[in-house]
Amino acid sequence: MAVLLGLDVGDIRIGVALSDELGVAAHPLCTLTRKNRKVDLIAIADLVSIHKVERVIIGLPISLDGSIGAQAEKVQKFAERLGQVIDVPIEFQDERFTTAEAEDILQELNKDIKEQKELIDAVAAVIILTDYLNQNRETTSTAATNNT
Predict the structure, then answer these.
(1) pLDDT band at 121 (very low <50, low <70, confident <90, very high)
(2) CA count, 13 A, side-chain hemisphere, 94
(3) Whole-number pLDDT of residue 40
(4) What is the pTM of this model?
């Protein structure tokens, strides 16, 4: 498998996670504070290059009813622009409830409010990437089972 980069794209910050080379686990890499479109895209392109990323997974905030709302449209536009500056595939992963799940994890780890704010986006990116890895592992194992 390849190294994947997971992104939780928000208006103020972008949480970033990285998978291991085997595609077994994801870990938080960093949180980028948004500056402007050009700076944000260059920062991510640099991470893709430095970590030899082969695929970028972006959390898509789909509405509870399954529709694409205003925030999801912003994320799709961001992905479109990112695709113009990197040479690796970009895929979306449903990110419903990831921020709430990340908050729960940080509370369980007894992180104070300040620490939670610093970590929340990166942890959400880990959840997005982990969900993607698990989904693809299930799809791959189901296909392998059906072929035997």
Answers:
(1) confident
(2) 11
(3) 97
(4) 0.83
pLDDT digits (tens, 9 = 90+) for 101-110: 666 776 676 6
Domain boundaries, given as residue ranges, for the chain: 4-146
Task: Tell me the two tokens of residue 92.
Answer: 């979306």
DSSP assignment, residue 34?
Answer: P
Task: Concatenate the DSSP letters of all residues of 70-92 into one string.
Answer: HHHHHHHHHHHHHHTT--S-EEE
**Does the structural domain 4-146 have CATH classification 2.40.50.140?**
no
| Angle of CA points 128, 130, 135, to nearest 5° | 95
Look at residue 103 and give its three-state secondary structure.
Answer: helix
Cβ neighbourhood burial of 141 (10 Å; 0-12, 13-18, 19+):
exposed
Give the contacts of 61 (CB within 8 A, at least 6 positions apart).
Answer: 69, 71, 72, 75, 95, 96
Place of tokens 């794209």: 9
